[in-house]
């Protein structure tokens, strides 16, 4: 059973990481397989309730019920799944960061527009220090996050694996952008 499988419902193609039966002629370790989404033995038990709605089909709990795949389904070399997965991790981390940055930037745009039009005590709320300081902090955080992502991408463009930089970016960006969106909610009156 596997939890938090993104986009499982409706997936046309699956990449599955699994262990092969013990065999003296094959290297140890998990192996990748490529198969059709309608393959018998792939059972979607349920879609989980999560706060992350970035994926239309959500995150599923999947069970492999006597799933058997032919040799042609082998993706890459046997026993090398972790090595292949590691190659993909850094770019995937940065993809998450970019998506979060886009969402937080949009929240900031909405909050700034609102602060320019909503009035309180005879002036727009953006003219009040409490609101303007929050929006300024957001601009600083968005810029720092953008630079952190760009730096990690630059490292990878220049031949580095980017594991360290992408991990730092994912940690930093996720925390900062939570703060940005929290301040945006406050500006919009959700204090």
Automatic annotation (TrEMBL):
Annotated keywords: FAD, Flavoprotein, Oxidoreductase
Biological processes, Gene Ontology terms: fatty acid beta-oxidation using acyl-CoA dehydrogenase
GO cellular component: cytoplasm
Domain Acyl-CoA dehydrogenase/oxidase C-terminal: 82-190
One Pfam family in the UniProt entry: Acyl-CoA_dh_1
Protein name per Swiss-Prot or TrEMBL: Acyl-CoA dehydrogenase
InterPro entries: Acyl-CoA_dehydrogenase, Acyl-CoA_Oxase/DH_mid-dom_sf, AcylCo_DH-like_C, AcylCo_DH/oxidase_C, AcylCoA_DH/oxidase_NM_dom_sf
GO molecular function: acyl-CoA dehydrogenase activity
Signal peptide start and end residues: none
Highest taxon of source: Bacteria
Originating species: Staphylococcus capitis
């Amino acid at each position: 059973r596997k939890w938090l499988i993104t986009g499982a419902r409706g997936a046309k193609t699956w990449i599955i990481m699994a262990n092969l039966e013990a065999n003296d002629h094959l290297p140890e370790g998990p192996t990748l397989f490529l198969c059709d989404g309608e393959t018998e033995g792939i059972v979607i038990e349920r879609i989980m309730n999560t706060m992350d709605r970035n994926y239309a089909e959500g995150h599923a709990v999947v069970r492999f019920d006597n799933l058997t795949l032919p040799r042609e389904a082998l993706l890459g070399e046997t026993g090398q799944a972790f090595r292949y997965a590691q190659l993909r991790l850094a770019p995937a981390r940065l993809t998450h960061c970019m998506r979060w940055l886009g969402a937080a930037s949009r929240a900031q745009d909405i909050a700034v527009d609102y602060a320019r039009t909503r009035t309180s005590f005879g002036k727009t709320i953006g003219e009040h220090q409490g609101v303007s300081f929050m929006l300024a902090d957001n601009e600083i955080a968005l810029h720092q996050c953008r630079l952190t992502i760009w730096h990690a991408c630059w490292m990878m463009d220049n031949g580095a694996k980017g594991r360290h930089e992408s991990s730092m970016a994912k940690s930093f960006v996720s925390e900062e952008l939570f703060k940005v969106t929290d301040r945006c909610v406050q500006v919009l009156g959700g204090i």
